[in-house]
Amino acid sequence: MAGAVATAALATLLAGPSAGTAGAAERERLVIDLATDTGAFHGGAAGSLYGVYGDGVPSRNLIEGMHLRTVSTKAQDGPQHPGADALEMLPPFVDSGGKDVYIYMTDIYRGFPYQWPGANGPERLADFKAKIKKQVQQVLTMGKYKDHVVYVPFNEPEGNMFGTGEWSYNKVSWLNDPQHYFAAWKEVYHLIKGLDPDARIAGPNTSVLYNQVKGFLQYAKANDVVPDVMTWHELSSPAAVRTSVAKYRQMEKDVGVGPLPINVNEYGHNYHLSVPGQVVQWVSAIEESKIDADLAYWNIDGNLNDSAVEANKGNGQWWLFNAYGQMSGHTVEVTAPHPNQQYTLQGVATLDEDKRQSRALFGGKSGDADVVFDHIDPKLFGKTVRATVQEIPWSGQVGDSAQPLRLADQELTVGADGSVTLPMTGMNEMSAYQVILSPGGNGAKPAAPSVSWRQTYEAENATYTGKGYSRNGPEGTPSDVGKFATSGAYNVGGLRTGSDGVLAFDVEVPQDGTYDLSVFANSYNLYDLVKEQGPTNVFLRVDGKEPQELRLPLGYKWVVWGHTDTTVKLTAGKHRITLAAQDPDLGVTKGDAIIDKIDLSLRDEKVTAPAIYEAEYATLTGTEPRYTYRGASGPGAVPLPKGASATFWVHSPADGESTVSVDHLGGGHASLALNGEQLDLPKAGGAGKGTDTVRLFLSGGINKITVTGTARELVLDRLRVAPSKGTLVPTVYQAENGTLTGAAKVTGAYPFATNGKAVTDIGDGKANALTVDVVAARAGRHALTIRYSNAEQAPATHYNPDPIARHADLSVNGGPARRVLFPTTFHFNNFWDLTVPVTLKKGTNRLTFTAEELPDFNGDTYNQYDQRSPYAPVIDRLAVTPLAAK
Fold first, then answer.
1. At a CB cut-off of 8 Å and minimum separation 6, what does 197 contact?
2. How far apart are CA 379 and CA 382, in angstroms?
3. pTM of the model
4. What pLDDT is recorded for position 126?
5. Quick one: which of 39, 415, 577, 768 has the fewest CB in 10 Å?
6. Is the pLDDT of residue 17 over 50?
7. pLDDT in tens, 26-38
8. Cis peptide before 113 (omega within 30 of 0)
9. Spatial separation of the C-alpha atoms in residues 181 and 184, rounded to whole Å
10. E strand intervals along 606-725
11. Would the CA dihedral through 188, 192, 194, 198 be positive or negative?
């Protein structure tokens, strides 16, 4: 009952007396001192190593909404991994608000350690210098984008090019004898600066911050080759981040250089990544240190280090960074109950005096604790404050997450000592939590919690009957961080081809109703039993009745969790929910799956009500919130004079129509943009308070909705968003009914395609194409939703799986082709939707899909390791939908 208790108890406690800190001595306390300024908010923890594959994988929405600041990635045309080529991902990253791309120049070589050719060290270095010259010359063609490039000449040189291995310079580690590495650094530094005098160079990029880095700084200073950015890796702990930064800053003082910007360009382990309650501990240390840092690359590239799901969906980790990136102003002192100790409650907080708003992010502990805001300035906040409390749950590495859950929204009286205490009850250590503190007292009715009752049931505690059972674990733990996080640390196997297994969960629910059920599960896409069908199918029953067939999520390795969602109708009281490998009415399981847990939550009016996005919590440009408006829904509202804007990151569970209600207090007008598309709609607003309702086609996952003032000063209150249907009606076209040319053909090999048919072998030349004629009722922008599959994977030389994002060159009515990237679906029998906007004329429009292999940057060579596919994905069907309607 922990989840249900957390929601109910938190809301109840916050509604009661909460001034001061009395009576909290028995509980752990996270204390946020709003009077102690610890520096301007930096946002540096939102970095990624190999997290961006190319334009569209992940989507620009995901990059911008994550507030991604830095990316470290491979040299253009490097053969280390498919995609993530520096100069291909540079424009979409920068255009989405990114700051710097760190180019791993060494990744122009295959393998790790790097396989640089030559009979001896000088020959190898000469070959590398020639490749460095070519890389810099390519960067110089990038126009304004080149200002966002930072060159990283060497990666982990102490164990690699200047280490002791077969592929090293001379099998002598520079940690013992640095002369050859130092000389190489100097040569390469001058080579880069000679070609690009404005270049920024980062190093030494060691695997840890060795004591020998001080000697490197001494040499660099003496020879006038000090790096522009100091880089190293922290595959350790958040505590080590703080310790290492302090240690390095002392080195700088001792040597007399700097202070230099720092990028710790690898941090975190499998056990941490994707888990908001773990990653927030790293975020707090990185933000406190005011450095940049990049999430480590242990798995597949292009998914923001297990933050992105498909092309445009975010998991819990993405929403954590979305919340972190919306912090502003300056950070304030946060005192944790166990300062700087991993796997305990840790946090980061900001105060923005202009917005009159404080935000806190924290997590890492299960159970209860008090969150205390001290020294609340009455000039900023008044005598009462409005506290909105949200939970950002873990949703798995490949599990989509909706926007954070609203646990409570309350007005609190500030105590005589200038503090308020928020009693957090029943926290989950895998979740992160956010509190937004604003001035209170405007008379608005607080919003209700967005969930009423929920419960988690662990698979290892369920009853299994039949053959083949396995209780797997413990998985990732603090002492085994290389393994993946798992709820309860254990999972259950047994539901597979040929099994008669039944996994039974005994549940008890508080009332009659419909309940949302999420099954957290995983199948390894390359495992023998899984390869035949793809998604493993199992059978759900409630009390032996109402059978449903579920297809469970695929992943790139075992223990990579996603969730399959459905609904069940339950009466108040006890029930048995079973997952079985056989069903007398529906069939048998094909594949092999492991089950982590099921989540059950009541689908009542709190869940089905429109999602609320308060304007005062949005990303604002050219304006600030005000808290004096009577009639506002939240603590305040946002005036939008001409040109000022409010941007909202809105979740949609699937591609399709939603009703978006723009609640305002009048005063002017504003326009709407969706995912960067200016909408051809009447302006929102008016003279008095009101609501403008529009129907928008939202892409599954993350949508960027921007409201921009156009006349006078519209006072924007909030957006309310709910899925709807009936206005923006899609027209569906089966790919097999299109016109096929060349080698493109219809296949029946993938039974999970609609009607069991799809089109394959599009590409490997423009002659092999699919053409579909679609009809638009009116001219303008439309959403084109492509149901596709893609499981191409390149041979790897390392621990990273190397799936390939296939592409299609899409031409509308014979116009210039637009290249669309499609991330892996993990199996050709596993179909996902991807939506791209297109401009259609009224009547019939011709869509043509082709593909051909993309050459390397200079256009004269091709990748020799099968890392650039010449093929489009398998296409199942197309749907065409108007983008918006009033």
1. none
2. 6
3. 0.97
4. 98
5. 39
6. no
7. 799 999 999 999 9
8. yes
9. 5
10. 611-614, 619-621, 638-641, 645-652, 656-664, 668-674, 677-678, 684-686, 690-698, 701-723
11. negative
